[in-house]
Automatic annotation (TrEMBL):
The chain crosses the membrane at residues 16-36, 83-102, 108-126, 161-178, 198-216, 237-266, 272-294, 340-356. This is Uncharacterized protein. PANTHER family: CYCLOEUCALENOL CYCLOISOMERASE. It comes from Stephanodiscus triporus. InterPro entries: Cycloeucalenol_cycloisomerase. The keyword ATP-binding does not apply. Keywords: Membrane, Transmembrane, Transmembrane helix. It comes from the Eukaryota.
Amino acid sequence: MPQPPTGLRTMDKSPIAIEATMLAILATGFAILVGMHSVQLRSPRDESAAPPPEKHRRSMLFASAPLQLPDPHTEPSKYCYEIFSWYYTCIWITIFGYIVASQCYENFNAWGYLGVCGGLALPLLLQPILYPQASSTSVNGNIIVNPDTQRPFHQRYSTKTNLYLITYSFIGNYWYTHYFYSVLKAKYTMPAHRLNDIPISMFLATHFYFSTYHVCVSNGMLRYVDRSYAGGWRKQLLFWFTVLLLSYFTAFMETLTISSFPYYAFEDRTMAYVWGSAFYGIYFLVSFPGFYYFDSHIDAGIVTKNNSQSCNGSLTLMDTFITACGHGMLILTLLDFVRLYLGIPLVIGGVAFAATP
């Protein structure tokens, strides 16, 4: 069996060395990305067509960022839900950031963690039931009506999105976290109610984290690449390099932003940042493109005049569940390939349910 790379065994670099390594990796990646954008051919555009309807909203939410929302006239379900997700992202990050910065988590017991994470996940879970419109928006003076308001609960885009992320989050926490325990020697030490030795609060926190990552960030960036440039090998390379770099960057930023939280610890900080980000990024190599194409025909039957729609081509809840399970199985297989390459045994301990102080 191949031996793990030397750098994965002991990496006692100083914080300055760690930051320099990460800066070099990310700077190189972003430089390549900019270069790949510069050689793209712009997608041909019908000059008689109206300006892109998302332009006004882009200026409010992203300014000049390489992000693009769905077309509000041909994809109103996704458009309204992504607007809702962006606004809610600002809310949960503010609350979570305050908790970490103020260290008020020091006063939490197991129920406190469960209450905070469950409370922050709840608006996303209740939105399909209580607020199917998702967001009240208008483009060029025209009010965008979300077709989810006219669909049964089980056919709503937001319902299926939540089911996909719930399924993916459960698989990720229940299985993948043990790879972090075994390969990266990570551990949660805060008071917690645990399922299979994973804090249940983390299952809930993953839901709003992954909602932001997939619904807002990756969808917006991949759509920008997909719709801004002419088809061909250049765009394909750019699309998949964007997936690769965004996966690594997302994983690194999450690791960095929770580094001051003392109850999620690694034996080696350098290993966690450099190699752990790559390990965590495997999740998103599969789920970012998978979710981008998820239920892409949800609004295919829309008639603009009266906002009526047909569900032909739209996924069912069973389709959604199977899709998430398929993505989850592929990620699990890739993680295990890496573990086998490193020659590290997978140890899964714990019991079905336990409470730790």
